[in-house]
Amino acid sequence: MRPSETSRFNALLCALALIGCALAARPFVETGISDDWSYVRTAQLLAQTGHVVYNGWAAMLLGWQLPVAALSFKLFGFSFTAARMSMLVIAAATTFMIQRSFVQAGLAEWNATLATLTLVLSPLFLPLSLMFMTDVSGLFAIGVCFYGCLRALKASSSHKSAAWISFAALFNAVGGTARQIAWLGVLVMVPSAMWLLRRQKNVVIVGMAALTVSIAIIFGSLHWFLLQPHTLSESPWIKLFSLAVCRVLLYQLLRIIVGVSFLMLPVLFGYLLALRRSRRQLPAVLAIVILGMCLARMLQLHSFQGIVPWPIPPIFAGGIVSSAGIWEASPIFGTRPEWLSWHIRLIVTAITLVSLISTILVVCFGVRKHLGNKGQEDIPWRSLLVLSLPFLMAYLLLLAPRAISTGLFDRYLLPILLVILPARSAILSGIHKYTAAVFNLRFCRFRRDCHGCRHSRSLCDVPCYACCGCGGARFRCFGNCD
Known about the structure:
This protein has helices spanning 3-24, 36-49, 65-76, 80-104, 109-120, 125-128, 135-154, 158-175, 184-196, 201-227, 243-263, 265-274, 281-301, 342-366, 381-405, 414-420, 431-438.
C-alpha cells in the first residue's frame, strides 16, 4: 500500500472510530440541547417551505448546514435524530480532513492518527458531533482551508500552489457561512500562506483574485443576513478597557490554557513520562503545582473570591464538559448528580498541571536540541508557525468581546486545538518521542552503556519511541526520529 493510500486508510479509520463511539452512546433522545433546537427549527422550515426563516435566536447564518439537515428531513422525516445524524456525517468528514491535515503538516502517519483521535474522541468534540450546533461545521471549513494551504506550500509547481490557494480561499468563504468566525481561514490563514509563497508571482496573482472573490462572498452573505427579520448581531469590538476588563481577559486566558491542556492530556502526559526518572525536575514540577493550587485556594478565599477556579480545571466550569455530565444551561429541575466527584476533579487538575509544566520543561530544556528531524518534513516548523500563529492570535482577539460580555464556552476551543496539535515547534515538538507511550505501546529502557546513541544520557530512559538508530541499545523501534 502506497503512503498516500495508507494515509487515507488511517483517516477513514479515524472517521469510523468517531461514528462507532457516537452511536455507542445511543444519541436518540428527541429534545433540544443548547441552541440546536432553534437551528433545527430553521432547517425544518427550509425543508417545508424552501425558504430560510430565522426565529430570533440565531446570531449566525447557519449557511450550508441547513440544506444538509433539510435533505435529511426529506429522506427520513423530521426528528432531532435526523438533524443530528446529518451533523455526525459532517463530523466524520471533519475527522478525515483533520487527519490528512496533520499528515500534511509533517506529523508521521501514526502520530497524525493518534493526534486526530485525541481531538475527535475528546469529551468536547464527540458530544458536539451529536448536536446540531455550528461548531463542527465551522471546524470543517477551517480544517479544509488549513489542508489546502498546506498542500499549496508542498506543491511541486507554482500552478498547483495557485490552484490549492484558490481552493482553500473559496471553500472557506462558502464553508464559513455556517459559522462566521470560520472566515478567519480565508482572511488570515490564506494571506499567511500567500506570504510564504510570495516569490511565486503567479501564485500571488491568482491568490489575490481568489481572495477578492471570497471577500465579496463574505460581504454579500453578511448583507443578506442583516436584511433578514428575526436575526441577532454581536459587536466584534471591546467598547471600554479598564482594570476589571483586563482581569477578566486574564482569567479567560487562564481558562483557555488549562482547557486546551486538559483536552490534550493524552498527548501531554507523554512529557510527564519523560521526566519520570529525573531526580530533580519531577519533584520541582510537583512542588510548583502544589504551591500553585494552594495559592489559588488562598486567592479564592480572600480578595479574588470566585475568580480563580478551584479545585477543578476551568474546562469543567460549564458548557459541554461539566461535572454534571450534561449541558450546563439546560433547564432541568432538581439537583443534578455529579458524575465527576470532587476528588476525581482534583486528581485531574493535578495531572493536567503537572503534564503542562512537564511539557514546558521538556520542550525548553530537555529535548529541544535533539529534535532535528531535518529532511523528514517538507514544511519547516517556522512556515507552520507563520501559517497557524496569526490565525490563533486573530481568533483569540475575536473571542475577547465575548469573554467580557457572556464568558467563553468550552466549545470555542476546537479551532485552537486544530492549529496547536500539529505545531511541532511548541506543544508537540516531541510527539515523535512520547505519544506512543501514552497509547499503551511497549516501553523499553535503553542501557546506560549503549554505544552510538546520539542522545544525551538523561534521555536513555524515555519510551522506545524516543530514539532509534542506536546500534548498541536493545529496544523495539516504532519509527525514525532523525
